[in-house]
Amino acid sequence: MHKAGFVNIFGKANAGKSTLMNALVGEKLAIVSPKVQTTRHRITGVVSTVDYQIVFSDTPGIIDPKYRLHEKMMGAVKSALEDADIAMLIMDARDNVAENLELFSSLRLKATCILVVNKADLLKKEALDEVVKQCEAWGKAEVVAISALKKDGIPALLERIVGLLPESEAFYPDDTLTDKSTRFFVAEMIREKIFHLFDEEIPYHTAVAVTQYQEKTTLIKITAEIIVTRETQKAIILGDKGSSIKKIGTLARQDIEKFVGQKVFLELFVKVRGKWRDNDIYLKEYGY
Ligand code: GDP
Ligand code: K
Ligand code: MG
């Protein structure tokens, strides 16, 4: 009997959704940062064995939309709510339990739920046991405590997921890793560096678009644009004598080379597009 299904991850900002998806898939597909709203798309990661196929979806954190961009992000959450066979509800073990349970209840999920208490590494055993107890009292989901960062409890979680998976043929060929293109991941890896290197509003005003992706004989030549909303932000991204953009380029190139398994020549440009976050044409152009 072969099992297969969609296992979609939901939770508040920074609960560790993207870290968990990467740990379960065993590949860094989703970018991670300590900042909220890092993830803007629904990203799938497929795990296939002879016995089962799991199509994981990482989603943006659940927020109140303030820009058209945010509405698109919550649209990605909504689509994932609708097609989940299993909903993986994840919370930070240090966060308010009642608040998280209220959020999860408000999703009105019809799918089978697993409640993942993440960041177990940050709590003492007694405190963690207490959180797990409170979560179990909710009564609507199996509760599993893990550390996505340290990869603690991942095999046990996977086992629970497989146990709940419906009987089904595979949805994708068994060598499928994701539904997103290499160009998408290249743009995301550049965006991740911006989340890591800049504070305050810069990451939230930034989009990245890959404008050229050329496979040459010995390397891949990639050109990308970093889009910001103001000239002052452009100056910050560039940095003194171009030092900051150089840093973004170096760090991103290392990640991209690891991902594509080839040498990469990466060229970055910065463009100012006033209100791209509220402009449907720009949003579409930048992949939202
Ligand atoms: P998301 O916004 O829900 O996708 O959360 P991320 O995966 O981007 O993680 C947010 C932050 O929490 C990052 O700094 C992660 O490194 C950190 N994080 C995620 N999982 C764990 C964990 O199990 N333990 C600890 N200590 N930190 C974690
Ligand atoms: K984050
Ligand atoms: Mg995320």
From TrEMBL:
Q: Where does GTP bind?
A: 11-18, 58-62, 118-121
Q: Which InterPro entries match?
A: G_ERA_dom, GTP-bd, GTPase_Era-like, KH_dom-like_a/b, KH_dom_type_2, KH_sf_prok-type, P-loop_NTPase, Small_GTP-bd
Gene Ontology cellular component list: cytosol; plasma membrane
Report the residue ranges that make up the KH type-2 domain in this protein.
Answer: 198-274
Region (G4) location? 118-121
Which part of the chain is the Era-type G domain?
3-167
Question: Its topology with respect to the membrane?
Answer: Peripheral membrane protein
Q: Where is this chain primarily localised?
A: cytoplasm
Q: Where is this region: G3?
A: 58-61
Judging by the UniProt lineage, the source's domain of life is Bacteria
State the PROSITE patterns in the record: G_ERA (PS51713), KH_TYPE_2 (PS50823)
**GO molecular function terms noted in the UniProt entry:** GTP binding; GTPase activity; ribosomal small subunit binding; small ribosomal subunit rRNA binding
| Chain segments carrying region G1 | 11-18
> Carries keyword Nucleotide-binding?
yes
Q: Where in the cell is it found?
A: Cytoplasm; Cell membrane
The segments labelled G5 in the record are 146-148
Biological process terms in GO annotation? ribosomal small subunit assembly
The job of this chain, per UniProt, is described as: An essential GTPase that binds both GDP and GTP, with rapid nucleotide exchange. Plays a role in 16S rRNA processing and 30S ribosomal subunit biogenesis and possibly also in cell cycle regulation and energy metabolism.
By sequence similarity, the record places it as follows: Belongs to the TRAFAC class TrmE-Era-EngA-EngB-Septin-like GTPase superfamily. Era GTPase family.
Subunit info here reads: Monomer.
PANTHER family named in the record: GTPASE ERA (PTHR42698), GTPASE ERA, MITOCHONDRIAL (PTHR42698:SF1)
In its UniProt entry, what is this protein called? GTPase Era
**Annotated source species:** Chitinophaga oryziterrae
